[in-house]
């Protein structure tokens, strides 16, 4: 009985301090225009997260040109990915609001490499996919 209670308490304590994480994979593309491509094939997808959620963005180079992902209003900037298949991961805690994300390398944003991240209040619901 005591062992079962200790195991149960351990599981509760392990889960108590962990924040929910939301992960997005964005692949770079240069076919006519520059873009970040979401897992569902959407160009420059709007990313929806909840305030306080840990956000993980995986940026994968899909075209061989150098790219970076930046969200200046959240003080978030990825490492540069230079070669096809190279990945970098950035993590941050979501703050309420809507913020552009883009590639800050010369000309990339102007050529279309820009999307939006929307941080919703915890009680708000995400749009259906």
Automatic annotation (TrEMBL):
The keyword Signal applies. Transmembrane segments: none annotated. Keywords: Signal. Residues 1-21 form the signal peptide. This is Blue (type 1) copper domain-containing protein.
């Amino acid at each position: 009985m005591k062992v079962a209670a200790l195991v149960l308490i351990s599981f509760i304590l392990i889960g108590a301090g962990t924040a929910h994480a939301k992960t997005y994979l964005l692949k770079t593309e240069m076919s006519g225009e520059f873009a970040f491509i979401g897992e569902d094939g959407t160009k420059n997808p709007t990313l929806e997260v909840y305030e306080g959620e840990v956000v993980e963005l995986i940026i994968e180079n899909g075209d061989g040109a150098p790219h970076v992902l930046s969200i200046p209003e959240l003080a978030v900037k990825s490492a540069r990915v230079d070669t096809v298949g190279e990945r970098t991961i950035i993590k941050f805690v979501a703050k309420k609001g809507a913020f552009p994300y883009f590639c800050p390398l010369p000309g990339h944003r102007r050529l279309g490499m820009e999307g939006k991240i929307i941080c919703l209040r915890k009680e708000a619901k995400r749009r259906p996919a």
